[in-house]
Amino acid sequence: MGVFRLFTGRELAVDLGTANSLVFVRGEGVVVFEPSVVAIDERTGDVHAVGEDARRMIGRTPATIRAIRPLRHGVIADFEMTEQMLRYFIRKVGGGRLPLAHVVLCVPSGITKVERQAVEEATLGAGARAVYLIEEPMAAAVGAALPVAEAQGSMVVDIGGGTTEVAVISLGGIVASQSIKVGGYEMDEAVAKHVQGTYGLLIGEETAEQAKLEAGSAWELDSELDATVAGRDLQTGLLRRIDVGSEELRRALERPVQRIVDAVRTTLESTPPELAADVSDRGIVLAGGGALLRGMDRRLASETGLQVAVAESPLTCVVLGAGAALDELESLKRAGSEARRGRGQRRFGRR
């Protein structure tokens, strides 16, 4: 995920996520919102499609074409394909040109030094002139308009496609945090495993995600829902359709949802008392696509005893926060130098 400042004065923010990539142009808003998927021809190694066109090919391609997600759990799983995808999104907004640019990359708070170097190199390879890093929960908090630079604790939970980032922020820094490899994809896998184990029906990740969107929940609903899923019967090999209810899907989703709840609790337990009191007064803000799971806010409120609110635009929090980081490039440059020296200072909004 990153922000691109063009020398022409045009400024872009790019949120390169595990599930989706967003491009924000200052003065225009979000102009690209596409899946982080690349389709390649395995015979030649050429990129066949990127983004939405590639997503439609998942599970439907001929033997020679493979649709892949080059990022997993918020970090690069396929270096070359990530670079190709970055290059595609930059050119799409730039009218086919590949301008040199300053880039602010948004990375998971639990990223390793090797993973940090990989995302920097991929972005430079895609045409960036310089790379700066900002952690995802900080970008999400800024994008959700939390007072991150003030001397008071703010708590954000960013539930993405591959990771969930939990952080308590004060005075421009992350004071306590948890980064777990649980997100929307793990929820989809949980639905697929439940359908296979209960009904002997093999369904794809797209079908599982659609069922989650139609009827998935983390808390009891006032009016329970149903979703229809179609797949291959493992005994007969034939196509079969079944209906699954929201109560059943809630049970299927229990494990990944509980892991998110546990991460929030662990972060609260490690938060200094004064900041914990602030969080108790102000509550928790949810961001990311997982924040849209029905009842996720009510589940966390029940488990923590705190007020929980969903950000106004949870899907764009990170890209909007990364856009705000354009004004903090010097601070991020100093923070990056300190992180490379092992000191790991994480400050935003303070010069």
Q: What is the tally of helical segments?
A: 12
Helix content: 25-40%
Radius of gyration: 21 Å
Largest beta sheet: strand ordering: 4-3-2-1-10-11
| Terminal residue distance | 23 Å
Poorly predicted ranges (pLDDT <50, ≥5 residues)? 4-9
Q: In this structure, how is the largest beta sheet organized?
A: 6 strands, mixed
Describe this structure in words.
This protein is of the alpha+beta class. The protein is 37% helix and 28% strand. The protein contains twelve helices and 19 strands. The longest helix is centred in the middle third of the chain and has 16 residues, at 184-199.
Helix-strand layout with pairing:
Elements: E1 2-6, E2 11-16, E3 20-25, E4 29-35, E5 38-41, E6 47-50, H1 52-55, E7 65-68, E8 71-72, E9 75-76, H2 79-93, E10 101-107, H3 113-125, E11 128-135, H4 136-143, E12 154-159, E13 164-170, E14 173-180, H5 184-199, E15 201-202, H6 205-215, E16 226-233, E17 239-245, H7 246-252, H8 254-269, H9 273-282, E18 284-287, H10 296-304, E19 308-310, H11 317-324, H12 329-340
Parallel strand pairs: 10-11, 12-18, 18-19
Antiparallel strand pairs: 1-2, 1-10, 2-3, 3-4, 5-6, 5-7, 8-9, 12-13, 13-14, 15-16, 16-17
